[in-house]
């Protein structure tokens, strides 16, 4: 029984790494991208995490090169203002076989 489990583990991990990103994956990637851009603009890490509420609603994803081209609606809210929902389509690429996804080639929303 134990040998079978050890043999199946790599297969299960490979299957888990396949497929398009989930809505949660898109939200994490977009938030990470916005966080990186805010830090580059001079914000502190804690301020970005505490103040920025990001919501992503996934529409659809299509295979594109070595990732996925996904359309989604983005809503952001801070204590000072809320933005209206914005429709966007961006390219997402897997960070690694065991990691999450990252936004490639541009802003989350332009």
Q: What topology does this entry show?
A:
Blueprint: H1 2-17, H2 23-40, H3 45-51, E1 53-64, E2 67-77, E3 86-94, E4 101-104
Antiparallel strand pairs: 1-2, 2-3, 3-4
Description:
The protein has 110 residues and is of the alpha+beta class. The chain is built from three helices and four strands; from the N terminus they run H-H-H-E-E-E-E. It has helices at residues 2-17, 23-40, 45-51; strands at 53-64, 67-77, 86-94, 101-104. It has a four-stranded antiparallel sheet with strand order 1-2-3-4. A hairpin with an 8-residue loop joins strand 2 and strand 3. The longest helix is centred in the first third of the chain and has 18 residues, at 23-40. The termini are far apart. Mean pLDDT is 79; it is low at 11-16.
Number of helices: 3
Helix content: 25-40%
- Uncertain stretches of 5 or more adjacent residues: 11-16
Order of helices and strands: HHHEEEE
Distance between the termini: 53 Å
- Biggest β-sheet: count, sense, barrel? 4 strands, antiparallel
Structural class: alpha+beta
Radius of gyration (CA) equals 17 Å
């Amino acid at each position: 029984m134990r040998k079978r489990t050890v043999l199946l583990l790599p297969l299960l991990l490979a299957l888990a790494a396949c497929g398009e990103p989930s809505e949660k994956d898109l939200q994490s990637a977009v938030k990470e991208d916005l966080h990186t851009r805010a830090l580059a603009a001079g914000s502190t890490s804690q301020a970005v995490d505490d103040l920025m509420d990001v919501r992503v609603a996934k529409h659809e994803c299509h295979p594109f090169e070595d990732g996925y081209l996904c359309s989604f609606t983005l809503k952001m809210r801070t204590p000072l203002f809320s933005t209206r929902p914005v429709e966007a389509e961006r390219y997402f690429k897997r960070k690694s076989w065991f990691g999450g996804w990252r936004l490639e080639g541009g802003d989350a929303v332009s």
